[in-house]
Every structure is written in C-alpha cells, then in structure tokens.
C-alpha cells in the first residue's frame, strides 16, 4: 500500500529524510540524479553476481560537472554498501560542443558550437581520487583509456554528448578488442525521447549503427525496468538501455556448467 497513490509520495518524503540506503533510494528515485543511482546500483548487483570486485562508471558529456559529481557521490555510497570498488570517469571536450557540428545527424538545428563549456579548474577541485576527468576529443581519449592496463570492467555508462558523431565515438568503449565489461551493462542515453529526436540521427542512429556493425555486444532496451517501481511513469526510465556482451555470456554459462558438472556426477 505504501507504493500506491497517494501514499507513495508520503512514503518517498519519509524515506528521503530517514535513509541513505542506496538500493532503497534507487527504487524510490531519491537522488539528484536518480538515473545515475539506478545504473550504479544495478551494475554493483551484476558485479556481485559475476564475482567481479571492481567496476567503472562513465559519464560521456560532463559539461559543468554537476552530473559527474553526483555520479562520484553515489558511486562512493554504493561502494561502501557493497564492497565493490567503483571508479568514475568523465569524458568531455572541456570547451563545449565541438566547432564542427555535422549534418542533420548531429541536429545542428538544436546544438551550437561551444554549448555547455566547463570550468575545469573549479571542477577538478571537487573530484575525489577515485574520479578521473578526461578532456579532449572522445574519439582519441576513449582509445587511450582502454590501452593496457586499462580500466576496471565497464559497469555503468551514461551518454549525454548530444551529437550523433560524438555518441558514435563514445560507443567505441564497447568496440575495443581488449574491453572489459559486465555481462549486462546499464546504459543511460539522455537524448532519445525529445521532440526533435528521430532514428536517422543523434543517439538513436549511433546506437543502431553500433548494433549493425557489432556481433559480440548488443545494445537493447532495458526491458521490465518499470515493473514493481513506485513511480513507473518517471521519464528517465525510458532512456535506459543495456549493453549485452553476447560472446562472454556464452562463455560464462559454459564456465558455470563446467563448475557444476563434477558435483552432479559425484
């Protein structure tokens, strides 16, 4: 009954002042960025299931840094609760959107060069040692980050770089041959349900092309995300997807079967 209108709002208000338990807050959308808290908690649960002790949470498109600071804060809380080491990475140009915005696929009717600049010095002062800010063209910086020794397994990825071209480059984080990722990586795409959104441009096109080109990793809707949630109508839920590592899923199941088989034979 606490999840039914009008009681759900009273319950949320009560929980907001009485708990900092991350999994409870993720269920009730109690965060300055509930999408980040939900993505990180689900990634931590998946890491526990797989026996992985360290994961990464990535924000593509830092802008002023408000989101990155929330990601950092929530990652620390979830890490303390679960024991999973969560490292945070933020990618951005640092100077706003690039000067060369492309054709209709980049939505030049909406975005302008230099939109969303960053005060780098002020932001860096607020970052913890567990958070790394990476500035430059994402097409180059993603590749550099994945070079040995690389980063912990991809756990949660948020993409808010606005442009088709930048989104396509950001998805290279899943294209690298040496990538490490959870079997199922929650992904948040910020610009997939706007008035101007269409499947011939922006994040939707970049995602489609990625799926068309790839065989081992497939990005699909997060099915069932609204089930049993107190506020299933929250708009941000429609912006969630999952990157599935199809190859490793098969290998993981075989490994599990090999571990179980001797016990069954005995």
Describe the structure concisely:
The chain has 266 residues and is an alpha/beta fold.
Plain-language structure description:
With 266 residues, the chain is of the alpha/beta class. The protein has one domain (33-265): Vaccinia Virus protein VP39 (Rossmann fold). It contains nine helices and seven strands, in the order αααβαβαβαβαβαββα. A seven-stranded mixed sheet has the order 3-2-1-4-5-7-6, with helices on both faces. α3 (34-50) packs parallel to α4 and α7 packs across α8 (202-213). It is globular. It starts with 6 loop residues before the first helix and ends with a helix.
List the keywords.
seven-stranded mixed sheet, 266 residues, alpha/beta, 39% helix, Rossmann fold
CATH class annotation: Alpha Beta
The overall number of domains is 1
Tell me the radius of gyration: 19 Å
Give the biggest sheet.
7 strands, mixed
Structural class: alpha/beta
CATH superfamily caption = Vaccinia Virus protein VP39
Topology, element by element:
Elements: H1 7-18, H2 22-27, H3 34-50, E1 54-60, H4 66-82, E2 85-92, H5 120-124, E3 131-135, H6 138-146, E4 153-159, H7 164-170, E5 184-189, H8 202-213, E6 217-221, E7 240-245, H9 246-265
Parallel strand pairs: 1-2, 1-4, 2-3, 4-5
Antiparallel strand pairs: 5-7, 6-7
């Amino acid at each position: 009954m606490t999840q039914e209108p009008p009681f759900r709002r009273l319950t949320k208000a009560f929980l907001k002042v009485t708990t900092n338990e991350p999994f409870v807050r993720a269920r009730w959308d109690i965060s300055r960025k509930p999408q980040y808290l939900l993505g990180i908690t689900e990634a931590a649960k998946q890491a526990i299931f797989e026996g992985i002790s360290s994961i990464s949470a990535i924000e593509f498109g830092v802008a002023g840094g408000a989101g990155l600071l929330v990601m950092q804060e929530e990652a620390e809380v979830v890490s303390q609760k679960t024991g999973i080491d969560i490292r945070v990475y933020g990618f951005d140009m640092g100077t706003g959107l690039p000067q060369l915005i492309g054709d209709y696929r980049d939505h030049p009717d909406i975005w302008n060069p230099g939109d969303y600049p960053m005060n780098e010095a002020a932001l860096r002062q607020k970052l913890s040692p567990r958070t790394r800010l990476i500035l430059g063209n994402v097409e180059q910086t993603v590749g550099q980050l994945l070079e040995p020794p690389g980063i912990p397994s991809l756990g949660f990825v948020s993409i808010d770089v606005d442009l088709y071209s930048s989104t396509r480059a950001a998805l290279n984080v899943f294209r690298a041959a040496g990538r490490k990722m959870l079997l199922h990586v929650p992904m948040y795409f910020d610009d997939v349900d706007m008035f101007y959104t269409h499947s011939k441009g922006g994040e939707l096109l970049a995602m489609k092309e990625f799926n068309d080109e790839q065989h081992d990793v497939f990005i699909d809707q997060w099915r069932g995300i609204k089930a049993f949630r107190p506020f299933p109508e929250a708009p941000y839920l429609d912006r969630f997807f999952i990157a599935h590592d199809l190859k490793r899923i098969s290998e993981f199941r075989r490994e599990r079967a090999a571990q179980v088989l001797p016990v069954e034979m005995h």
